[in-house]
Design brief:
With about 350 residues, this protein is an alpha/beta fold. Helix content is about 40%, strand content about 20%. The chain contains 15 helices and 13 strands. The relative contact order is 0.12.
Length: about 350
Amino acid sequence: MGEMQTQSVATAIRSAEAEGFIAGTLFSQGWSVSCRALDFSSLLDHIERTEARGSLLLISTDVDGFSVEGLDVLKRRGVKYFLFAATIDAHEVFPEAIAMPTTPLELLGIIRGSLRSPLIRPTHSKKIRSKIIGVCAASHSLGCTTLAINLGAELAELGKKVLLVDAHSYSPAIALKLGERGLNSSPEIRSISNNLWALEITQSEINTQIAALDHARSEFDFIVIDLGVLKDFSASLSGRRWSEEACVWTTTHGDEMWVMAQTDLLGTEQLRLLVAELAQNSIKPRLSFLHALRGASKRSKSGQDSFLPVVTSLRPLRVLEYPWDPRSAQGAQDKRTSLCESNERALLRKTIAEYAGELIS
């Protein structure tokens, strides 16, 4: 694992119970709680003393000494803050204040989803319709993109309205594999076949595209997000790079994350490291693990036997097998299409179709 960049947090919460919950939750998820101020003046002293411009400040509206003028001081200094309403009428004085979170996932969702901007993103008010599935891998070259494309295609074949998202920040591949030129030049969701739409996350349009994902939750039956390799997972959840936004969004709003891994010597070690990080970080999606098989030899059977003990500690929703079928995958790629169109009888296609059917049953 790479070295994790620790995010510094300072709190000024009047309620001891609420402050203890917030500080304890963030500490358990890798944030460094550098100051737990008892009043607003102490928080300002901390900022002056440490020049903590890069810190996140968590403040309740009823903390001693806090006022509209004090909030203006923070704004002028460019300090990033989260303001929690301590009372129902606090919004009359502080319109930007949000409700105090009551669960760890609610708190982490607020902060992880807002690290790139000083203020909280607007809450999506429409009824949520989508089931959101993140597809990722513990190591490279396991077929993550092939799985995402074909899972989306199979769901579309079953009559579901599906959004396929390419969140490979530095090596997007969905447009190339499906022959969709210009997908990465548009910030908008694009129709690519019957019941199937696509979106490629890009640095230049990241804010617009994350807003589009928020809106898509009420427009699509399924959102399938190709996240690629989960590397330095803990750092990704508390980092500020644009390339981490889709992962943060998925762990905040997703219903499931499908993690692909294999059990050769290196693959097993990479899976163990990822499982350890997943165990240390609270996320919303339920986890499923897919064992990427490499043939049907006795050696691969031994790998299957070792796969389950590595992942069972996370109590996965599913533990599945992903067959090794490079000829079919390459054939679909050569034709720039999905497996259900290029080779509907392929073992890989039948397996993914079965998994898609289970999702809607």
